[in-house]
Amino acid sequence: MADFIRFFIPFYFIIFFLVSFVGISCKVAKQIGKNPNVLPKDDSAYGLVGLYFKLVLFALFIYTILLLFFPKDIFSAFKINILEYDIFQYAGIVLMIFALIWVIIAQLQMKNSWRIGIDNSAKTKLITHRLFSFSRNPIFLGMTVSLAGFFLAFPTVIAFSFLLIGNILMQIQIRMEEEYLLKEHGQMYLTYKKRVKRMFTLY
């Protein structure tokens, strides 16, 4: 199992990044004629959140690459032994695969409205159907599930830190986007907000 985890985790996150960020970005860019990555690069609070997002992604990439090339050192570092059971690892792998599929479907359902960040230069359509009828933020939900699955598959303090820090940054981003959506869509967004929960709604 350890050898499988060693190869699965880095290749999983590489595929996740290439498909859900690079691939979808290129697809949307061709359709709207500009880069959908609109995270600010200034010294504002929002710009700082964007910077932290990038740093966390970079640190996650480095950590998984180290796992691939230095498995003995990384596997034993900051391990949470109480969670080191095959059933947790299998559950984590299933969650990671499910999360990747979920995120890609949600991105495709957003079509031209998908952005990395808040696009103040264009009014995008409010998406409320399909996966968005269960969650107002299905992409962030999928990313959170992916990090939770990573922690279960590879239970270390560092993996838990990625889950914790990533979730905090996503919750901040979600609230910023909610303010923007309320400003742009008004009553339509308020009605949607009352009907569908921030992360997940069971009917």
Give a quick rundown of the structure.
With 203 residues, the chain is mainly α. The chain has one domain.
Describe the structure.
The chain is mainly alpha-helical. It has one domain (2-116, 142-174). The protein has seven helices and no strands. The radius of gyration is 18 Å and the shape is globular. The model has no long low-confidence stretch (mean pLDDT 95).
Fold topology:
Elements: H1 2-32, H2 45-69, H3 71-76, H4 86-110, H5 138-153, H6 157-185, H7 187-195
Helix pairs in contact: 1-2, 1-4, 2-6, 4-5, 5-6
Features:
single chain, 203 residues, mainly alpha, 69% helix
Largest sheet: none
Report the end-to-end length measured between terminal Cα atoms.
Answer: 37 Å
Number of structural units classed as domains = 1
Whole-angstrom Rg = 18 Å
For the secondary structure, the number of strands is: 0
Find the structural class using helix and strand composition. mainly alpha
Order of helices and strands: HHHHHHH
For the residues shown, what is the average pLDDT? 95
Q: What fraction of residues sit in β-strands?
A: under 5%
Tally of helical segments: 7
